[in-house]
TrEMBL record:
PANTHER family: INTEGRAL MEMBRANE PROTEIN-RELATED, PILUS ASSEMBLE PROTEIN. It is found in: Cell membrane. It holds the Pfam family T2SSF. This is Tight adherence protein C.
Length: 312
C-alpha cells in the first residue's frame, strides 16, 4: 500500500472523529419539544419502549453505555429507512420476546456493525497485502452491514417458527390437563389457573399472561382472545376461542378439549409421515453414492485380483 492510502485512511479516521465530536456539541444536542413533553404525555407502559438504559445488547456494557446515544439515533434512523414497525411488533409478540421495536432496531444495528467491522478488517488486510482496488472493498463493507441487518430479521422469523413448534408440541398435554380439571368439577378459570401454575412452557406462559391481564381489569374473554391474536397458530386460536365461549356462555368444555387434543395429535402424526416421505429421497443419496459403490467394490475386487494372479 502506497503512502497516499495511509494518508487517506488517517484522514478518514480523523474526519470521523471530528464529525462525532461536532455532533455531540451542546449547541447541537438541544432537546426537541417532543422529547421535553414526552415524559408527561406518554403512558407508563410506553416509556419502556423508548428507554434503553435498563438493557444491554453486547458483552461490553461500559462501551455500550458510552455509545448508547448513537445506538438510539441509529436505531431510529434504521426504523425510518426500513419501516414496518407494526410487522416487527407483531413478530416480537409471536416470538414471546419482551422487547420493543426500538430495541430490536438497535440489535439490528449492532449485527450490521459487526458485519461491517469484519468486512472492514478483511478489506484493510487486502489493501495492505495486495493493494486491491478500494471501491469493491467499500461495496463489500456496505453489503456486509446490510446482510447483518437482514440476518437479525431472519433470526426473528426463525424464533417465531421455533416457538410455534414448541407450542404445538405442548398443546395436546395442556388440553388434556384442562379437560381433566374441568371433568373433575373445576370451572374454566380455575382449570386455567391450575394448568398455568403446574405446567411449564410457552403455552402455559401465555395462559399466565392472560390471567394476569384478567386480574388487572381486562375481562377473561378478552384476555383469552388476546392470546389467539398474539400467536399465529390456527389450532391454538380455535382452542382459545372455545375456552372463551365456554367461559362466556357456560357450555360444556371437556369433550371439546379432548377432541381438539386428539386432532392435534393426528395432525402431528400426519406431519411425521409427510416428513418421513420427504426424507426417503435424501436417504437414498448415501446409499446410492456411498454404500452401493463400496459393496460393488468388495464384491468384484477379489475376483479382479484373482484374474490378475492367474493371467500369464
Amino acid at each position: 500500500m502506497t503512502f497516499s492510502w495511509y494518508g487517506a485512511l488517517l484522514g478518514l479516521l480523523v474526519g470521523l472523529g471530528l464529525t462525532m465530536a461536532i455532533f455531540r456539541l451542546p449547541v447541537l444536542r438541544r432537546p426537541k419539544l417532543d422529547d421535553r413533553l414526552a415524559p408527561y404525555i406518554r403512558e407508563a407502559s410506553d416509556r419502556r419502549v423508548y428507554d434503553l438504559s435498563d438493557r444491554t445488547f453486547t458483552p461490553f456494557p461500559t462501551l455500550e453505555r458510552i455509545l448508547r446515544p448513537y445506538l438510539r439515533s441509529g436505531g431510529s434512523m434504521l426504523e425510518r429507512v426500513l419501516g414496518g414497525g407494526v410487522v416487527i411488533r407483531r413478530r416480537l409478540q409471536q416470538a414471546g420476546l419482551d422487547m420493543a421495536v426500538e430495541e430490536f432496531r438497535v440489535e439490528q444495528l449492532i449485527w450490521g456493525a459487526i458485519g461491517f467491522a469484519g468486512a472492514l478488517a478483511a478489506s484493510l488486510l487486502l489493501l495492505v497485502s495486495r493493494g486491491t482496488n478500494p471501491i469493491p472493498l467499500l461495496i463489500l463493507c456496505v453489503a456486509a452491514f446490510v446482510i447483518g441487518v437482514l440476518l437479525r430479521d431472519r433470526r426473528l422469523v426463525e424464533q417465531v417458527k421455533k416457538r410455534e413448534v414448541r407450542m404445538m408440541a405442548e398443546f395436546p398435554t395442556v388440553a388434556d390437563m384442562l379437560a381433566l380439571s374441568v371433568t373433575a368439577g373445576e370451572g374454566p378459570v380455575a382449570a386455567l389457573e391450575r394448568v398455568a401454575n403446574v405446567s411449564k412452557g410457552e403455552l402455559a406462559r401465555e395462559f399466565r399472561f392472560a390471567l394476569s391481564e384478567a386480574r388487572t381489569g381486562m375481562t377473561l374473554v378478552q384476555a383469552l382472545e388476546s392470546v389467539g391474536d398474539r400467536t399465529n397458530v390456527a389450532i391454538l386460536a380455535r382452542f382459545v376461542d372455545g375456552i372463551a365461549i365456554a367461559v362466556e356462555r357456560g357450555t360444556p368444555l371437556a369433550d371439546v378439549l379432548r377432541a381438539q387434543a386428539a386432532d392435534v395429535r393426528e395432525a402431528g402424526k400426519r406431519e411425521l409421515i409427510e416428513a418421513g416421505g420427504k426424507k426417503e429421497i435424501g436417504m437414498m443419496v448415501p446409499i446410492v453414492f456411498l454404500v452401493l459403490p463400496v459393496t460393488v467394490l468388495f464384491a468384484f475386487f477379489p475376483g479382479a485380483i484373482g484374474l490378475q494372479m492367474i493371467s500369464p
